[in-house]
Amino acid sequence: MSTSSIRLFVTAPLAEGVNAPGSEAQAHYLANVMRRAVGDTVLLFNGADGEWAAQLTELTRKKVTFAPHQQTRPQAPEPDAWLCFALLKRTKTDMVVEKATELGVSRIQPVITMRTQADHVNLDRLRAIAIEAAEQCERLAVPEIMPPMQLPALMAQWPAGRSLFIADERRTARLLRFSSAASALLVGPEGGFTDAELAGIGAHPQVTRVSLGAQILRAETAAIAGLALMLATDPPQE
Ligand code: SAH
Known about the structure:
The chain is α/β, with parallel strands linked by helices. The chain contains six helices and 13 strands. Strand 3 and strand 4 form a beta hairpin.
């Protein structure tokens, strides 16, 4: 691996001549796992200032300092798309968070529905998974991970300008298609939404029921396949 292919997310501002501290975990990773040394170069991003090549100016097992010297990519606008999904068991939730980050969502909202089997998340863990996925897929931003919300509360405070596409496995809706507007996909739990839930959500003016194809998908597959449909577009021309 070349020295520049390590990409790390930092919370500090990134600008030329301004030292940026890394975390203790990053110091450990760079020093002990990747065996980097002072003077080596890595790539940094923080969700706001684009991507920067930076030199390690200080590296111990617990502390790392970066000196950004050149912007390698400007911060580019990303799709304004959320994933709302009925909370799954831990391994599947982890996978959905990782894949949704790779596919480009800006927010991940776990939802509690009538038939949802799980109610607890470790937000720090999910945020770490999203950061790692963004580092690996060369995204310049990390999606926001929200605490779980009950479905009725989510609907009651749904923002006025955002379309909500409900993944409905009954074969009556049209296929979900690319949307460039502010949007969100809502995927139900393993047992599906109840009729009462579907009626309640369907009454909402911004809601459209959509299909994800002929097969009945597992909930985690539906989240990933649905985002692929909703976000499928040509890459920006650089
Ligand atoms: N009703 C079924 C399956 C639920 S599938 C049951 O009783 O077991 C879990 C979730 O995935 C659904 O709530 C729906 O949001 C989504 N989903 C699965 N397959 C789908 C499809 N072909 N089109 C749209 N959504 C789908």
